[in-house]
Amino acid sequence: MRQALVALACGGMLLSPTLAQEGAREVTFGAVTYALSCAVCHGEAGHGDGEMADELAVPAADLTGIAQRNGGVFPAERVAEVIRGGSAVTTHGGQMPAWGLVFLKDPSGPADGQPATSTAVERRIAELVAFLESIQAKP
After folding, report:
1. Residue 114 and residue 108 in contact, taking contact as beta carbons nearer than 8 Å
2. Residue 104 in domain
3. Cα–Cα distances in Å, from 89 out to 16, 19, 28, 60, 126?
4. How many domains would you assign to the chain?
5. In terms of Cα–Cα distance, which of 112, 132, 133 is closest to 33?
6. Is residue 94 scored above 50 in pLDDT?
7. 109 in any annotated domain
8. 9 lies in which domain range?
9. Which of 29, 30, 80, 107 could connect to 128 by a Cys-Cys bridge, CB 3.0–4.6 Å?
């Protein structure tokens, strides 16, 4: 599933002029990051039912209900902070991995194999946040 999503997203970016718009680009690349980094715990659709969900000390959060749990407003900066690693999230029996640090060392980042810059990491986090906002359950 993850490979198909990556291929679809990347192929769509090349073929569709409407996906060239910034918001669509962020959601598309955010979907790829989600599939590669988050779906294993949070599930393909974000409901907390990923392949590793049974291995977690505390169930992974249903990411489609973030806005509902926040009075109907999606807290983008708070979500970015959690992803970045600046906030302890105890859904895994400890702190959720600090993806900001993981993304800095991600060998699949820059084409030259060098560590990502903080600007690239922040863009990747922003794309992931845009994707998470796009999958919020409708009230």
Report:
1. no
2. yes
3. 37, 33, 25, 10, 19
4. 1
5. 132
6. yes
7. yes
8. 2-134
9. 30
pLDDT digits (tens, 9 = 90+) for 32-73: 999 999 999 999 999 999 999 888 887 888 999 999 999 999
Query: Looking at the domain assignment, is residue 36 inside a domain?
Result: yes
Place of tokens 């049974």: 54
pLDDT tens track for 6-21: 444 444 444 444 444 6
139 in a domain, yes or no? Answer: no
Q: Dihedral sign for Cα 36, 59, 75, 95, please.
A: negative
Alpha helices, H only, the chain: 2-15, 22-37, 39-42, 76-84, 99-105, 118-134
The 3-class SS string of 79-112 reads HHHHHHCCCCCCCCCCCCCCHHHHHHHCCCCCCC
Q: Which amino acid is at 90?
A: T
